């Protein structure tokens, strides 16, 4: 079952997303990067306001590949009460040391890796993310003005990514300047979720405010695209049973 993730910046957008039926709320600051982080106090307040009505993820920011910085940011963000912490890996630089450090946290916190289709993502090393205890891996784009996910990676490679992540028992996600018209093609790949920001905003500008009618349009498109007998993959099944869905 492919679900909808919506990135929000404040309580108004959070409430609009919940009202529209979004499956996962993602706390992010689009003004400060691909994975721009909100202030810790804002993350805590928004997670509290959500009050368990919907799973919540939060990004730690566009951080360098430094094990200490990443682990500290994961710990601070997780302590805010979010369900998932999203961490970006913009290249394979220092990847082994970063994964070794983060592995010490994944027994306590649900961490999702974000790789970037426009930055030569280390897709051949997905098994290392699974071995380090990551709950999921998503593909995004780092440069938001350079085209969307489908402009950076062909559907066959995206399908292999989804299949490989599933085989490793992790959740898969696709994001990166996704548009309404991308939904049928990406949905057919059966990722666990599709992530949106720009498509939800006025003028499709990710730093503009979310428009409720765009939220509803994306949500309805996902519902209409879902096949009649859509299979639930093992990782998502356990995720739902854990109460995160």
Residues in β-strands, percent:
15-25%
CATH homologous superfamily heading: Aldolase class I
Work out the helicity level.
25-40%
What integer value in Å does the Rg equal?
A: 16 Å
H/E topology pattern: EHEHEHEHEHEHHEHEHH
Q: How does the overall form come out from the CA principal axes?
A: globular
Alpha-carbon distance between the termini?
Answer: 11 Å
CATH class: Alpha Beta
Identify the CATH architecture: Alpha-Beta Barrel
Number of strands: 8
What topology, given as strand order, has the largest sheet? 1-2-3-4-5-6-7-8
Secondary structural class: alpha/beta
Mean pLDDT: 91
Uncertain regions spanning at least 5 consecutive residues:
228-245
Question: What's the number of structural domains?
Answer: 1
Output the number of helix runs: 10
Largest sheet: 8 strands, parallel, barrel
What is the CATH topology classification name?
A: TIM Barrel
In short:
This protein has 245 residues and is of the alpha/beta class. It is 39% helix and 16% strand.
In words, what does this structure look like?
With 245 residues, the chain is α/β, with parallel strands linked by helices. It has one domain (3-244): TIM Barrel. It has 10 helices and 8 strands. It has helices spanning 11-20, 40-50, 67-78, 95-103, 126-131, 149-152, 155-167, 183-187, 212-225, 234-244; strands spanning 3-8, 24-27, 56-59, 84-89, 111-116, 136-140, 171-174, 193-196. It has an 8-stranded parallel barrel, surrounded by 5 helices. Helix 3 (67-78) packs parallel to helix 4. It starts with a strand and ends with a helix. Its EC number is 4.2.3.153. It holds the Pfam family 4HFCP_synth.
């Amino acid at each position: 079952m492919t679900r909808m993730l919506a990135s929000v910046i404040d309580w108004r957008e959070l409430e609009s997303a919940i009202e529209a039926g979004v499956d996962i709320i993602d706390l992010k600051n689009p003004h400060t990067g691909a994975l721009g982080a909100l202030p810790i106090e804002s993350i805590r307040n928004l997670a509290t306001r959500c009050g368990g009505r919907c799973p919540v993820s939060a990004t730690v920011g566009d951080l360098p590949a430094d094990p200490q910085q990443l682990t500290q940011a994961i710990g601070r963000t997780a302590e805010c009460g979010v369900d998932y912490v999203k961490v970006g890996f913009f290249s394979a630089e220092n990847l082994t040391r970063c994964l070794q450090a983060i592995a010490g946290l994944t027994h306590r916190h649900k961490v999702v890796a974000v790789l970037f289709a426009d930055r030569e993502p280390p897709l051949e090393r997905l098994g290392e993310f699974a071995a380090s205890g990551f709950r999921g891996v998503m593909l995004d784009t780092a440069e938001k003005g350079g085209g969307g996910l489908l402009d950076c990676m062909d559907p066959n490679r995206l399908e292999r990514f989804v299949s490989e992540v599933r085989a490793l028992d992790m959740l898969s996600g696709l994001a990166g300047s996704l548009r309404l018209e991308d939904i049928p093609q990406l949905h057919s790949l059966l990722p666990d979720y599709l992530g949106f920001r720009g498509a939800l905003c006025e003028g499709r500008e990710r730093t503009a405010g979310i428009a409720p009618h765009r939220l509803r349009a994306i949500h309805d498109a996902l519902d209409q695209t879902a096949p009649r007998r859509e299979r639930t993959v093992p990782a998502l099944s356990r995720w739902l049973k854990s109460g995160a869905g």
